[in-house]
Amino acid sequence: MSGLEIKHQVVVFDAADLDAESGFWAGVLGGSVDVEDDWHMVIVDRQPRVGVQLAPEHIPPRWPDGSPPQQIHLDLWVEDFPTAHARVMELGAEVLQPVVESDAPDRFQVYADPAGHPFCLCWVIRE
Question: Are 121 and 78 in contact, with CB atoms under 8 Å apart?
Fold first, then answer.
């Protein structure tokens, strides 16, 4: 059985403030924003990557187990965590959970974007 012929895959976030949300993701991904009245599309390398849909009554999810609960999040794997951390904070992210040290080589830190959607910066400690 073959799958659907999908031209683009786009993650769509609901947000009350389209400019803040789309500007944040354009900054994180190095893209630009295509603006419509109640919809913004973040374009990276001339391809749609993230959509932002106007939801005036949007209530940010409460991470990790609040109400409303988290329903989806992005893991963004980076090579240079300090630089990535500084950039997302400059763009308006909020740290929800600092990195937890462990013996495993994988690390992650949990953030919220301007609309409160959780995402993680992830990296591998190289020895």
Answer: yes
